[in-house]
Amino acid sequence: MSTDIDQLHLETAKRRTFAIISHPDAGKTTLTEKLLLYGGAIHLAGSIKSRKTARHAVSDWMEIEKQRGISVTSSVLQFDYGGCRINILDTPGHQDFSEDTYRTLMAVDSAVMVLDAAKGVEAQTKKLFKVCKERQVPIFTFVNKLDRYGKVPIDLMDEIENVLGIRSYPMNWPVGSDGRYQGVYDRQKKVVELFSADTTHGQEARLSDIYELGSAELKDRLDEVVYQNLLDDIELLDAAGEDFDLEKVARGELTPMFFGSAMTNFGVQNFLEEYLRLAPAPAARESSAGKIEPTDGKFSAFVFKIQANMNPAHRDRLAFIRIVSGKFERNMAVWHETGGKTIKLAQPQQFLAQDRQIIDEAWPGDIVGLFDPGIFRIGDTISDPSIKFRFADFPVFPPEKFARVEAKDTMKRKQFLKGIEQLTQEGAIQLFKEAGYDSIIVGTVGTLQFDVLVYRLKSEYGVDVILTMQPFEVARWLVYEDGHTATPEGMRGIDRGMFVYDRSGLPVLLVNNEWALGWIRDNNPGLELYSVPPDKKEI
Ligand code: G4P
Predict the structure, then answer these.
(1) Of 21, 29, 263, 269, which is best to mutate to test ligand 1, by the most ligand atoms within 8 angstroms of its C-beta?
(2) Which of 23, 25, 66, 119 to mutate to test the pocket of ligand 1 (most atoms within 8 A of CB)?
(3) Count of CB atoms within 10 A of residue 154's CB?
(4) 420-448: per-residue pLDDT in tens?
(5) What is the mean pLDDT of residues 218-225?
(6) CA-CA distance, 129 to 189, in Å (whole number)?
């Protein structure tokens, strides 16, 4: 028994589970590829040029991603490096997919924020950063595209502090200036790493030479001005900069900052090694039974993502779980809290892009894809049958866009309903039914989700749909103080919106502005309005 517990401690300590967050185009995909390259998971990193023509980014799964050139769904990549087992959760960069991204961030222990050195902190980075900060996820910063002209490093530090409200601690410092950087100074080891010219367009790991700061060899290699500037910068950082404090990093108050270029492999390996050294191993989670530590002996996990038909070669549905505690074993029986029964996990899978492998065991921090016959929901808890509890509920986004959706061909209504139901379970859309009618109203947090809905109903369920956008901007769940149920007949002013029921049958009013909302509040005494279902927390 004790050897089992020893192994659990050992395997947990090895895990690093994180997401890379960035504004589109900052270089998240390129950096992911390079981390895989250094991890030996792919031998030739797809250069951006070849990716655009022949090859797709390693995390591109769905056809729509390829067509649109954006990452729609989150994917999971796993590889080993330096004694660590790394799980990278890819987050969709597009702003409309914040809900999916949010859920992914519920499953990580830290995040890497990629900034474009020339653009600094951009809009989408800000949003994603906020989510991480709220969850107190430690954030590491990689300032990318150092191979070309960018903002001055000191200015970037100020920008991070002023825009995001977090202090930064440069772990390394670029040597050179204005896109003519030759290497980085490692502040911990006090050495300078100079990179040889990249002759492979970033397809192979980059060679570098290491010099002690102050050594004659370094002075020989660097231009006098560059060398002096470096010494001045180091002095300034040491005197005026923040002290490095891992506790502050763990609380999300300080971000270790790295400079590099994902495309030319400049600083990538150093970043990976330092990141693995400093990033936290899997953390405990709150549950109805108190804090669950990863090294608690019994298995537990939660579902953070459900995805259908990811790969045309496997037309099925997967529920992604994040293991919180204990050892996961293939064919194990687990308690499914929402379903209220014990189930067997027969086909667990792990991923490297398009390749899937059946796995026999997994440990805290790992992500496993489970074959889902339609029983799982986002946020579900599964655990060893001897410990029945529930992890804290996922907060939900209030829907902001609404459309009536119907099958063009009424003969296909059955497939249509199946598709809508499955996409709802995946958490891609929220489903409502109009009171007194059979019609289906879909709510989302952004308009791109409607494009995905139409595309997926067509490609996966063979159903063409008619989509009619509705003029509403908010949904309000209706609850009377005295406990009686809201009905269309019993309320004043429902002609100012649309009375619908959510998929649990709870009454909801869709309205198009705050003014209408105010009128309804004033004219229906005792009515309480919630922007998400009353038993859920809003994001
Ligand atoms: P994303 O996933 O964050 O959206 O970004 P992605 O990696 O796809 O990179 C976006 C663009 O930035 C790509 O150019 C890529 O080549 C470029 N890029 C990534 N890392 C670096 C870097 O370190 N230095 C420089 N100079 N560029 C970098 P693109 O316009 O999409 O393609 P292409 O025309 O450059 O091939």
Answers:
(1) 263
(2) 25
(3) 15
(4) 988 888 888 899 999 888 899 999 988 88
(5) 91
(6) 29
